[in-house]
Amino acid sequence: MSEQTPLLHYRLTTSTGPKPRGGSERTGLQSGLGRQNSTRKLGVMFGVVIPTLLSMFSVVVFLRVGFVVGQAGLYHSIAMLLVAYFIITMTVFSICAISTNGALDAGGAYYMISRALGPEFGGSIGIMFFLANVCGCALYILGLVEAILSTFGEPEESDAVSAAFHQSLPSGYWWCLLYGTVLLFLCFIVCLVGAHIYAKATFVIFIIVVTVLVSIFVSFFVVEPTAVILPETSLMNNTNTRTSNYTGFWLGTLKGNLFSDYTVDYTTGDVMTFASVFAVLFNGCTGIMAGSNMSGDLKNPSFSIPRGTLTAVFTTFITYGLLSLLAAWTCDRYLLQRDYSFLGDINVWPPMVTVGIYSSAMSAAMSNLIGASRILYALSKDNLLGGALALAKKTSRTENPWVSVLISWLLVQVVLFAGKLNTIAGIVTIFFLLVYAALNLACLALEWASAPNFRPTFRCFTWHTCTLGFLGCLVMMFLISSIHAFASMAFMLLLFMLIHHLGPISNWGYISQALIFHQVRKYLLMLDVRKDHVKFWRPQVLLMVRNPRTCTGLMTFINDLKKSGLYVLGHIKLGSIGGMRPNTLILGFYDDSTPEDNLCNETLSSTVFGLDKACPASEPGQQPSPFFPAVRGAGDSKDLQEEEYVSIIADAVKLGKNVALARYFNQFNRNEILGLKKPLGDQSITELFVDVWPLNLLNPDSHGYVNVCSLFLLQLACVLHETRAWNQAKLRLFLCVEAGGSLQKDEMKKVQRMLKELRITAQVHVVVWDQVVALHWQRRGGRGQESLGQNSHDDDEQRLRQEGEEEDGIQSFPHITSHLTDEFISAVNSLICRHGSPKPAVRFLYLPHPPTDMSCYRTYLHQMDLLSKDLGPTLLVHGVTPVITTFY
Q1: CATH architecture assignment, domain 50-155+168-231+242-513
Q2: Fewer CB within 10 Å: C terminus or N terminus of the chain?
């Protein structure tokens, strides 16, 4: 082994890579419910825990402990370990959050970042991640070759007489290349067969590494104090001290190793500092993506990734901490500083540690090779570089991307020709850290955007943890190498521009649009006309034109005149213009109740004027006007007739707007319901419920819960539950079934599976409604109930397609106003009331589509009145747009 071989050969992280998704983005539940992939075979242990443990341990667990403790001392070592694992844990929280936010398709880190931050950013990070895995594989292969030659290689001519019998392997550039090629080919064969063989191989290596670690811990307690002969390469400054002491557990040794003593690293000749030693330690703490990047091969990624990754992180933290303590307690400082492989010297069977080093290096090389192939396959499937990666899409019958494995193997082989990779060793680690920073940024952006569909089941994260993880990764990048950090960012920018020009337009959704909407809304709400001042005046123009075709000169002139002010062109054009248009119309319910003035004797806090009085004039001579018009009296006529009211609902649905009718919210006292205003001394805690009835109760034929309207209703209830004031509420989902039916258990399981994939926590209540439905069949000529629930056999995707076809038309389903009796609707209303104990704070009901025949409008409104009568605060909801995705 070369005397100047840097420790970086044993400090690089590994991670397995993605097996990508297709180019299209699946939304709703058309791809989610009950989706099983026969190629997904790995569980928590084989798919996440073992790969992550081996990636975080690698060979450095056997070679780094002495270096860190010997240079930094025990106190600084523990402090470094805590800081490093704090940064890593913050990043793991982000990984867990994104991985539990719906079904995670193949692609690992690349999939998470690209689907959140867009194809340009995600693609550039993905390419860098691919290159990092390729170079990392080559680094571990070369490191393994040098480790083998240090034990079995031919000695130099001056030491030929004292050479042992096993030191017979020839050395040199071409011999090293041959050894590396053979080892790489073994890794290639394993990865070419598939992920299941890779998992079995890593399990064998895991058993070996665990056995070696156990022998190390045992050796600290059973090996007697002894003098250890130091390696020739560590003897510097012509010192004559060729040995150092393993003292066993001795308090004097511990006291001598408590504080730092930074000196020269004998492998590089550089004087160590706190920052340089911390960088070495942090390099070994990475590798946290090894399990999550196997997402395409996991049975249940959302279940396996959080549990497996956190388990591996906790295990490695405890292991590193214990090894640091035992080394500081038993080994002389000089031994720790001059022999980084001292664990083998003091082992009960010294070759055991060597076997561990070889096994860990082989595992790391395989991990990087299979990781690189999965990332390349993901990039090719998403067509980010056009047809440049078309060949990498090919897979075997078991969906193993063998072409991507072949290409990755060839690239690693090319890198092996470079021989020593000291020059790129640092930038590989920087690439990994940049990926982790991007993942934290993706999670932070999703959290800041307040997207309703971002509701991960993993709750141990906030925007604070994402920010700390992001900043921590950036700091570590520049701490390890500021030059490499700047170079990697410049390379990422170059890739960003390349993908922007070559890549296709994606339908993944852009987080930038969600953030812009969030910020624009926030700043619009901050505008306050009372704070206007003449020195900040600017023109705000409304230009009325009949036909813009004849007014282009005037329009361009006024555009110059506005001086960055508001410019509204007063010409009506129908179309989907604007990014902040409403998508949901909410109306108060049309009934005969007398309106109540809830603002009587209330004051506006910003003006201290009563809302039931006139607003003072803002300018001299201006007549005062009330804040709001007076409440309609009991004898006053309504502004709208019944037909006009229903016409508004029908027109809104035709325009593609979701509609909700709000009833009995005059009974809704937010402070009382949410417990914000309690009588003095009342410390009681009352349960808060939100009831959801997702079935169209007035049409038992539509016995299905997986349709656009039902999912929209569920989404609204979930959005309410996600708000801070309502997060203590419990959602109750009522499932209407026939008594004793064979479909009852199937429907129950299907709904529970749907809720799990939608990340919605709700209590599912089964409601038997045979007697109610019987009234419906009697009205329709005594038709039997054998068809009840038949639709539940339909495939979920077929339901969605039918629903989409229904919603595109004027009429969603055969109208029911003509054959529904008041007796049946009243029975449905009574059914809802009976299952409302304890009384909910609010109910969500399915609002049927209004009829197309205007003569039925009065009947329709009468039926909605009977359905929601005396239910308390209720929202009758009709959704027409998909709002839920199981993929993010």
Answers
A1: Up-down Bundle (1.20)
A2: N
